[in-house]
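User: Hey, my collaborator sent me this sequence without any context and asked if I could get a structure. I don't really work with proteins. Can you help?
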Amino acid sequence: MYKNFKNKNNKYHIAITVVVLFLLLTASLLIKRDNNTFIKDGVIVIEKVIMYPFTVLNKEKNNTQSESYIIQKNVNASLEKEIKELKDVLELNKTLTEYEPINTTILSRNKSYWFNTVTIDKGRKDGIRANMAVVTKNGLVGKISSVSNYSSEVKLITSDDLNFKVSITIKTNDEDNYAILNGYNKKSGLITASGIDKTTNINEGDRVLTSGLGKMFPAGVYIGEVKDIKSDKYNLSKKIYIKTKQDFNDMHYLTVLKVKE
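Assistant: No problem. I've predicted the 3D structure and written it out in structure-token form, which is a compact way to encode the shape of the chain:
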């Protein structure tokens, strides 16, 4: 009985592994294309491939239809999310008229430093250089911190590296108030900013963008909105808490901004 159960689980694992590998391969192809018809055709092919292992599993004596359905449903949900993220990348490319967008896929992420860095599948051979801004449709996510021939490391704006600072501007009633991103609260999911005088008028809901100062990031890249405002313990300055649209726990595709030559 144990042997049959073990064999059954092995077949599940093999089927799921095949599906995951195929999804990753297909996603890497889709991200390099900007044709909606190609994406639709790719989805149809993926669905057919996904169906095959579950059809085989359903023929096994010890495998019920409901079990296969649950697995298939979970994979389909993941697939839909992947396709949506790919479409977001294509929409983003249409708005980046001043840049040559380089679309990339996240290869790996260190669990111990989840909010610090990610590794992407493009590098020096693809025109990526250190300090280039990295974005998604939801706004700025970080910068290129190191580059090899075929991959690069992205330092996220949620990093706990005290030396990594981003100059920002807070849009309040058509006025620009400058500050520095300098931290991330994992519990609240909010990015913090400091360097704002206590007399400066900042409101919840104000938009936060890159300032362009220091020339590390282009000006005007969206970061998020002011969620909360607090005074420091000496009541000399304000600390701003920023809510981003990007879920840093769940990212698959990133776009590197290369200035057009």
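In plain terms: The radius of gyration is 22 Å. You can pass these tokens on to your collaborator as they are.
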